[in-house]
Write a structure and sequence with these properties.
CATH superfamily: Galactose-binding lectin
Shape: globular
CATH architecture: Sandwich
Strand content: over 45%
Radius of gyration: 16 Å
Number of domains: 1
Number of strands: 5
């Protein structure tokens, strides 16, 4: 099972989250390298990846082959981290 997504991002820090069972991978460069590589036999679990994004990225998620619900991979979730605002001179 292989899913592709091209997505543009405003400059900022993000958390990417993906999950599945029986192995999954997440790439930001079309499948050349893997930011998340949880490719082993296991029950459903999720993984996160913190990254600074700015521009357009070619995401690929890969899960085990097959058409049953066993080995299912969840969609990629994106969460933008907002900077903390503090008063000058205060923590």
């Amino acid at each position: 099972m292989r899913y592709k997504l091209t997505q543009s991002f405003a400059d900022g820090d993000y958390i990417l989250k993906v999950g599945g069972d029986d192995g999954y991978r997440l790439s930001l460069d079309g499948g050349t390298t893997w930011a998340i590589n949880n490719w082993n036999d296991h029950g459903y679990t999720t993984s996160t990846y913190n990254i600074h994004l700015n521009g357009t990225y070619n995401f690929v998620t890969v899960g085990p082959p097959g058409s049953s619900t066993d080995g299912m991979t969840s969609p990629i979730q994106f969460q933008r981290l907002l900077p903390l605002l503090t008063e000058p001179g205060r923590w």
